[in-house]
C-alpha cells in the first residue's frame, strides 16, 4: 500500500463527517422555517419583509436539500455508508417535495451516462429553448404520484393539524417551485446548453463563470463547477471549488 492509499480512509472519514454535519445543518434550518412558517406564522403588514426573507432563504435551503440528495445518489455524502447515504437522501427529497428517491436515482445516473445525448432524462426533448427544456425537465422529475403525496401532506397539515392553507402555499410550495427554477437554470440549462464555446470534452458540461460565493448561492456550486462535477461525480458539493484548484495545480505541474 502506498502513502496515498493509506490516507484514503482518513480522507473519506473526513468527507463523511463534513457532509453529514452540513446536511444536518441544512435540514435543521429548513425544518425550522417550515414549521414556524406553516404552523406559527401570523400575518401583518409589518411581518411581510421578514416573511419575504424567510421564503428566499427557504428557497435556497430547498435547493440544498436536493443537492444533498444528489450527493447521496453518488455515494459522495457518506462514502462507504450506503444505508446512511440513502436514508439522508430519502429524507431530503421527502421534505423538499415528496419526491421519490428510488425513481430519481436511476434517472440521474442515466443523465451521467448519456449526458447531452438521446436517452439523457435531463436533456431537452428537441426544444432547446428555456421554457421548452424546462417543460421536459419538469415532466421528468415531477409525477402525478408525487403531486398526490404533496396533496395528502397538505390535507394532514390543514385538516388534522390546523395549518392555514395560505401558509402552506407561501412557506412550502413557493420555495419548492423557486428551487425547481434554481436547479433547472443553474444546474441543468446553463451548464448543458450548447453555446458558441464548445464543450471541453465528452462530459458535455460547462462550468458557469461566476464567483464562488454566487456559485454557492445559486445552486450549491452545481452551476459554477458543473464540469468538475461530471469529471468527478464522487466529489461532494462543498469540495467542488477545491477540486478545481487541485486540477489546476496538477495541470501546472505537467
TrEMBL record:
Membrane-spanning segments: 20-41, 48-68, 88-105, 147-163
A Pfam family: FA_desaturase
Domain Fatty acid desaturase: 141-249
Signal as UniProt keyword: no
EC numbers on record: 1.14.19.-
Membrane found in the keyword field: yes
The entry's keywords: Membrane, Oxidoreductase, Transmembrane, Transmembrane helix
Molecular-function annotations in GO: oxidoreductase activity
Enzyme's top EC category: oxidoreductase
Name of the protein this chain belongs to: Fatty acid desaturase
Species whose genome carries this gene: Novosphingobium kalidii
Organismal lineage: Bacteria, Pseudomonadati, Pseudomonadota, Alphaproteobacteria, Sphingomonadales
